[in-house]
């Protein structure tokens, strides 16, 4: 038979596991959501530059004069925005949810 301390310890361990499982699920769901949103923006950048190049080529078929498409600054902006937006989303999610995740699993009163 378990004494009260052992029961409390076991319940805390179960609660911690539940918090971890819940946190991992929420983290994964948020990552999928934010990545999809950000990758749509990157895809838009690629499509926009591609279609500009195709349109120019159809007007005047030449192999030069496309230096303003797919620029380093454009790629840098995409990556900076992507990482910044993902990090901001996670910071906001963490600040908003960590307290409730811990409170939901509190077994100290048992």
Question: Could you describe the 3D structure shown?
Answer:
- The chain is mainly alpha-helical and 110 residues long.
- It has 2 helices and no strands.
Strand content: under 5%
The gyration radius over C-alpha positions equals: 25 Å
The description of the largest β-sheet is: none
Q: Level of helix content?
A: over 70%
Mean pLDDT: 84
What is the overall number of helices? 2
Q: Helix-strand pattern, N to C? A: HH
Quick overview of this protein structure:
The protein is an all-alpha fold and 110 residues long.
Provide the fold topology.
Layout: H1 4-59, H2 72-104
Helix pairs in contact: 1-2
Keywords:
single chain, 110 residues, mainly alpha
